[in-house]
């Protein structure tokens, strides 16, 4: 997928969903298009278990809940054992979702420590290898995993419903770039999108859709760093449309946003300045030929014949009748 940098450059991928808009389809597309074998650990979405095959080894941990199962097994042991016993070579390690993993472990700090260990194990493998984690906002793990202290290089993909952009255009008169200046749009978009209840109200409110669109959604892509050993200053942030069949594509091509872009697209009509005049300004072919044969006056005036040396430059001034030319000193009456 074009919005995901090469794994060698970005070994850590953070996928963020919300109740209003799920990004589980992105995980499906990643696993289908991945060039490396994958280890998938399912804690939340049972539909991902259907991806089990020669290329992907899926582990069902949905019913492994502490206190509800006599044979409960610490998921950390299961994941580490599978990772250490995996064949040598590049590998994708996918955890869905780390919120449920943290709930099973019972500690945010212990979960963060465990994910740091997984990242080190993945990093030690031959490139390209990736650690891909799925998180559902709001979650206390998001600010921890997105910090440079966890990984200097990061690709953070956040799923948003298209209703959020429509809301910004109608309530705040702010359209996505390039229809609005980027500083104005991002300042408003970030403040509204980080309020999770805002998106939930747009989807599940009285006039909401009732669920996020699984076929088309808006993804916010945050890229930091160029990979292990290569550092890029700053953070790149952009918005794209995404669908399960097409992958990433421009926002203007989204079905839900087409009316927004077409209504605000600049008109490119060319106005003819000669229309609605009482006389004809155009020339026929014969008139143009005749005009080209007319010698223009003063075209050769002032030009010297060929091979004749030019005279030195000089300035000649013919005084006007109103000029007051006096060779005397104008200040001679002053006693200086």
UniProtKB/TrEMBL annotation:
Biological process annotations from GO: tRNA wobble uridine modification
Subcellular compartments: Cytoplasm; Nucleus
One GO cellular component, as annotated: nucleus
Amino acid composition bias (Acidic residues), ranges on this chain: 320-336
Residue span of region Disordered: 301-336
Keywords on record: Cytoplasm, Nucleus, tRNA processing
Location (main, coarse): cytoplasm
Protein's pathway: tRNA modification; 5-methoxycarbonylmethyl-2-thiouridine-tRNA biosynthesis
Keyword tRNA processing applies: yes
InterPro entries in UniProt: Elp5 (IPR019519), P-loop_NTPase (IPR027417)
GO molecular function terms noted in the UniProt entry: tRNA binding
Family annotation (PANTHER family): ELONGATOR COMPLEX PROTEIN 5
Family the UniProt entry places it in: Belongs to the ELP5 family.
This protein's name: Elongator complex protein 5
